[in-house]
Recover the amino acids of this structure.
């Protein structure tokens, strides 16, 4: 248990569906991250939020839409995804002044 | 950020020390060496990090060579639960900012009973 939770843990969706992934941390951290990990590939950074402000969008397609309503919660809204978007989506958080990221368990997404 | 080179896979007998090497020959003076691991289908887990001195915590030891061009992560008594992919990452520790981590392909450590 890292203190970072993600729901749901598994998600199967069709290409026309709209779904959202949720990440929550109660560690008092101020930075939150979304990563994507496709099969047999390294983790890819998607989005970074610092104090609720998006500070990085790593050329992610617009069918992925992040939302950070407060420092404890991070969402990833999904719509009209493609089968190649099937992957493990990982959330992480970090305290300002620290360099260590704490990861959640991930959401295994399958797009049919 | 400096690139790192790690062997793709290693085996270690249960109960023995696992020594995982990492080369980072282009590391600059203000870059730290971080180690994370990822057990199958879980999120990465922070292990340890250091700048130039050797570091030890409850999970592992980190040995950094004097020229800082390579390092070794040591798991003193490997258990089956240590089977995972181990990532060596070199990064400036800015504290603020995005502090992004760039994960490579890592070393897949298999602990054998």
């Amino acid at each position: 248990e890292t203190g970072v939770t993600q729901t749901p843990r598994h998600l199967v969706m069709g290409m026309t569906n709209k779904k959202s992934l949720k990440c929550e941390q109660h560690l008092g951290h101020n930075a939150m991250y979304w990563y994507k990990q496709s099969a047999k590939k390294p983790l890819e950074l998607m989005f970074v939020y610092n104090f609720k402000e998006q500070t990085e969008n790593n050329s992610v397609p617009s069918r992925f839409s992040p939302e950070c309503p407060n420092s404890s919660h991070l969402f990833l809204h999904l719509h009209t995804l493609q089968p190649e978007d099937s992957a493990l989506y990982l959330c992480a958080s970090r305290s300002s002044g620290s360099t260590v990221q704490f990861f959640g368990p991930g959401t295994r997404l399958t797009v049919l | 950020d400096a690139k790192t080179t790690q062997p793709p896979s290693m085996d270690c007998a249960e109960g023995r020390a696992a020594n995982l090497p990492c080369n980072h020959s282009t590391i600059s003076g203000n870059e730290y060496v971080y180690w994370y691991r990822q057990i199958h289908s879980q999120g990465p887990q922070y292990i340890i990090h250091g700048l130039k001195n050797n570091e030890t915590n409850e999970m592992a030891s980190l040995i950094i060579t004097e020229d800082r061009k390579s390092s070794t992560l040591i798991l003193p008594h490997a258990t089956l639960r240590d089977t995972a992919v181990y990532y060596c990452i070199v990064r400036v520790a800015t504290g603020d900012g995005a502090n992004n981590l760039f994960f490579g392909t890592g070393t897949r450590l298999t602990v054998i009973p």
Q: What stands out?
A: Chain A touches chain B at residues 2, 4, 31, 42-43, 45, 48, 50, 55-56, 88, 90-92, 94, 96-106, 108 (CB under 8 Å).
